[in-house]
Amino acid sequence: MPRKPSYDRDALIAQARDIFWRQGWAGTSLKDLERELNLKPGSFYAAFGSKDALYALALERYAQDGVSRLTAMADEVGPLQALKTQPQIVISAKEMPARACMLAKTFAELQAKGHGLADKAGAHLEEMKECFATLFRRAQAAGEIGAHHDPDRLAARYQSDLLGLRLSAERDDVNAIELASDIAADLDRL
Amino acid sequence: MPRKPSYDRDALIAQARDIFWRQGWAGTSLKDLERELNLKPGSFYAAFGSKDALYALALERYAQDGVSRLTAMADEVGPLQALKTQPQIVISAKEMPARACMLAKTFAELQAKGHGLADKAGAHLEEMKECFATLFRRAQAAGEIGAHHDPDRLAARYQSDLLGLRLSAERDDVNAIELASDIAADLDRL
DNA sequence: TATATACTTGAGTGATCACTCAATAAAGCC
DNA sequence: GGCTTTATTGAGTGATCACTCAAGTATATA
Asked: Which of A155, B4, B101, B158 is the residue whose CA sits 20 to 30 A from B125?
């Protein structure tokens, strides 16, 4: 009896993620979303409930994709090589809506106001950090990295470096490729 | 014949800087500013012209203070020691409105929209980077750092590390003190 | 084909946005 | 004290914000 929606919900979430990623939370109006997603207000609210709810879905999608891409690469080339390759990957993709991390941008924009989305972004950042820590642990188990290092501390530093790199890569006056290779080179000294 | 304003313009700019720094551009409304600065709309616009004009003044003040504090410290303890101390300074100040860099936050928030304030923030970031480069050059001249390093490249990496650190320091799950000392420790290996 | 059940549409909601301006108050100079 | 000049005030501007909802439309089942 029912009628099927004419849109692909998953595709809309991915599209919304790209818009939010580029423009931020306050920088994206409902008008923007309605225009880009080709959705009238009624359909939008029927599908997602609110701007914040869609933003939360976009954040989740972003974080899931990030973790799964990294772990897939680690399974292919090994944990250390994956960590060394990641910096150049995150800055090179020309098709990406922004170089800076969406989780970091969301956290920075909304944390001061106590917005719930900042907490969600922070939790996803923590997941990512744990993902890095797991790779460092696997690299240690494989003998690629000295066992005397604290993998959680390495992960925190590595994530911080990546966040700095990705923000710097948005600038015209920074050579992001040099920066990425310097970060990767540090991993060889562990 | 004229009447003097009842407020201290410089103090108002500093106060506005703190609010913008914490809440961002879109996150700060005229109502917020009027309430915190204790200024009615008419006085506000007579004094500053627009929200963006005040934001630009706040950015300038922020950047000037940053450069002068760092160079003052370098004159006191030497360039390398200043660079090594800076990380713990930027995360430790409890009286600061935010740990993350205001220039970075502004740039990240407004760059995608092509807002002029993003360009200003980017220019100030470049000034800061040049300030770091000068200190690295002075450290090399003093024999504190190997002469084979490119000071501009060191500065770019150092600034990126600081931006990552300061963003990470806003999070509850990151040990910013460890992070800061790890960044400082890297400078000893140059 | 008839009907039930959703999806689609777009004008419209009150709230808030950055900002304006005419009226009023206060200070310096005569 | 009177006059000039500027600061202060706060109600009000149109625009945009996120969001609503009743009416219309399309589709899967019976």
From this structure: A155
Token pair 């106001």: residue: A113
**pLDDT averaged over 10-residue windows placed end to end, chain B, 190 residues:** 76 97 98 96 95 98 98 98 97 91 98 97 98 98 96 98 98 98 96
For the beta carbon of residue A147, count every other beta carbon within 10 angstroms. 9
Domains along chain B?
A: 55-187 (1.10.357.10)
Which residues of B fall within a CB distance of 8 Å from A153? Answer: 175, 178, 182
Are A107 and B171 inside 8 Å of each other by CB? yes
CB count in 10 Å sphere of residue A168: 28
Residue B115: what residue type?
H
ipTM of the complex: 0.94
Cβ proximity of B183 and A164 under 8 Å:
no
First vs last Cα of chain B: how many Å apart? Answer: 63
CB-neighbour burial class of residue A127 (10 A; exposed 0-12, middle 13-18, buried 19+): middle
Instruction: List the single best residue of A158, A168, A182, A183 to mutate versus B (max B Cβ within 10 A).
Output: A168
